[in-house]
Amino acid sequence: MSFRVKQYPEKVCVVCAIQTKATTKMSKKDIYKVFKPQLSPKKMLELGVFGGSYFIDGSIKEFPKEWFKKAKTSKKFDVNLNRFKIESGLSRKEWIDKGWIFKEDPLGWFQWYCRFKNGRRILDIDEIQIKRWKAFGDRHGPAVRKNCEQGDLQCRKRQRQALLQWAYDPFF
User: What is the mean pLDDT of residues 130-154?
Assistant: First the structure.
């Protein structure tokens, strides 16, 4: 069953809430300088993200076939396909309710990232998504580092899975 968004918000309601010191005073074009994902979409798919079901609607033809050769995919969510074998994140319905889904990328942040990696640029959308990415990493990476012994991958598995799903390396 495919999930379709009937109405798309024009603006994300949380943009102001996710401003960080690194992004607040930047011009729109400078926002690209802070976006340095630690993992490629291909690597994320190989490690195991979104229970293997992110592209459940089959919309992968626009992306390089190489990305999917070793990808962990499924027609339905399978927690065992996630690298840390744990559910992490909100449902697509919750993403929509929070205003995080845009008509340009109806599947959400990871679809945006895959398209961005393939060269697509939409300045207004890129600015929102990069700020979301930055705010997420600034919040969750330090929390794991503060509360876990280095190398203890069993510590804070939900946050580590979430970091992985936001293109941050969770293996520290």
Answer: 97
How many Å apart are CA 4 and CA 169, to the nearest integer? Answer: 31
Beta strands per DSSP E along the chain: none
- Domain spans in the chain, listed from the N-terminal domain onward: 23-165
Give the C-alpha separation, 96 to 149, whole Å: 36
> Is 0.70 topped by the overall pTM?
yes
What pLDDT does residue 23 have?
Answer: 58
Amino acid identity for residue 18 in this structure: I
Checking if the pLDDT of 21 tops 90, the result is no
Rounded distance between C-alpha atoms, residue 160 and residue 21, angstroms: 24
E strand intervals along 10-91: none
Average pLDDT score over the chain: 88
Beta strands per DSSP E along 76-134: none
Angle (CA) 98-90-93 rounded to 5° is 55
